[in-house]
Amino acid sequence: MDDKKYIKIKMTTPLVEMDGDEMTRILWGWIKEKLILPFVDLKTEYYDLGLLNRNATKDQVTIDAANATKRLGVGVKCATITPNRQRMEEFPELTEQWKSPNGTIRAILDGTAFRAPIVLPFIRPVVSTWKAPITVARHAYGDVYKAVDLRTSEPGTAKFVFRGDSGAEKVCDIHTSDGPAVWLAQHNTEKSIRNFARSCFQYALDTKQDLWFSCKDTISKIYDSAFKEIFQDEYQTRYQAEFERLGLKYFYTLIDDAVARAIRSEGGFIWALKNYDGDVMSDMIATAFGSLAMMTSVLVSPDGVCEFEASHGTVTKHYYRYRDGEKTSTNPMATIFAWSGALRKRGQLDNLPDLAAFGDKLESACFQVLESGVMTGDLSRLVEPGFPVKIVNSEEFLDAVAVKLRELLEKA
To answer: What Cα–Cα distance (Å) separates residue 31 from each residue in 26, 39, 227, 348?
Structure first.
């Protein structure tokens, strides 16, 4: 063999590495050990976003990681725990219910999360008409994720007050309650909505896909209407000519109508959605195409900063079984694709074609292993009848990908 084939692929600029929690943290280490470090002279700026370290740093580590991603241009993130009351009981050392790290990072980067399923030829989507992936573009700022809420125990009236820097005030009554009640106030900014629209239109042009946008302006006549109007303004003033030149379409429709249209469609478009809508619909799209573990996600800021991650959570049940000594068949595909996407982007930005090509080869190795029938248990239940399947645990799957990846690199 030519010795050149054993020289590790070089990096010049580090990417930001954000470690996470539970089973995905275990997978993270295995992916680096088996699929990246043997082949790439990996350079990262490491941040531990595990729950206990976020608690120890009062969540400053999350802010530092987001700012580092802005500085270096590319980040890759492992799934993390967002604690609720149950987690507070499980982790008694927690000093508070820390907010979602993803929400903090999205707010700092002011980006749009583009989520698309990894499609396999031997797994048929639940929706029989779908022939191509549907990419969900999720606005990654504001709404319920940056909301403030309140619980009251007595009758009374809640008021919405805005006090401008000039001293002028706008006031409206929210509701007069005759007993205990809960209250929620959320916001967005015109700048963030406009950046969201621009990211969506540009991504549609880059990927040559139609773009849909949907919300509920008939009910939310100011809040949601602002989204609709800003999208239309951006389209007409910046993007319409190029859309028409490429034969692409942009249209707005109410979200309930969009859901019906999506189910009847053939797929192959970008569906832009507000923050909560995108969170929900991306999981629905992922499951309908096969598995949450097969959903990729990249957060793209208006100035081109990219943060890659898997869309799923920390796979808690598998982690408990792993902790008890069991070999689990946890699907690592979306986490692998987070790494491949980040390395490819780093290579593109730094003009390192070998590094960019490595990202492609890593994904190709995964596809070839799956097409040979070797897969984790979740996918085995979804394949078409008659397709030969060999169920393996996570380490065995990663080992098979490593063998195939080495073969592809040696052929180059």
So the answer is: 9, 12, 40, 22
pLDDT of residue 183: 96
Backbone angles phi and psi of 59, in degrees to 5: 70, 10
Q: Which two tokens stand for residue 250?
A: 């942009």
Residue 131: C-alpha distances to residues 82, 271, 278, 282, 345 (Å): 35, 16, 21, 17, 27
Neighbour tally for 205: CB within 10 Å: 16
Question: How far is the C-alpha of 105 from the C-alpha of 12, rounded, in Å?
Answer: 24
pLDDT of amino acid 141: 86
Give the pLDDT of residue 2.
44
For residues 134 and 282, what is the distance between their CA atoms, to the nearest angstrom?
A: 9
pLDDT, position 6? 61
123, 189, 381 from 385: Cα distances, Å: 10, 50, 10
- Phi first, then psi, for residue 328 (nearest 5°) are -100, 155
Q: Which of 11, 9, 17 is nearest to 44 (CA)?
A: 17
Backbone angles phi, psi at 306, to 5 degrees: -125, 135
Provide the total of helices (H) and of strands (E) in the chain, helices listed first. 15, 16
pLDDT at 5: 52
Query: Whole-prediction pTM value?
Result: 0.87
For 28, 97, 179, 313, 390, the CA distances from 91, given in Å and listed in that order, are 22, 10, 34, 18, 38
Cα–Cα distance between 373 and 122 in angstroms, integer? 10
| N-term to C-term CA, the chain | 12
Give the mean pLDDT per block of 10 residues along the chain (412 residues): 66 98 98 98 98 97 98 98 91 92 89 91 92 93 90 97 96 96 96 94 93 97 97 98 98 97 96 94 89 90 91 93 96 97 97 98 98 95 93 98 97 80
- The helix/strand/coil state of 250 is strand
Indicate the SS3 state at residue 329. Answer: coil
CA distance 206 to 351: 19
CA distance 200 to 124: 28
Q: Which two tokens stand for residue 132?
A: 């191509």
**Cβ proximity of 198 and 238 under 8 Å:** yes
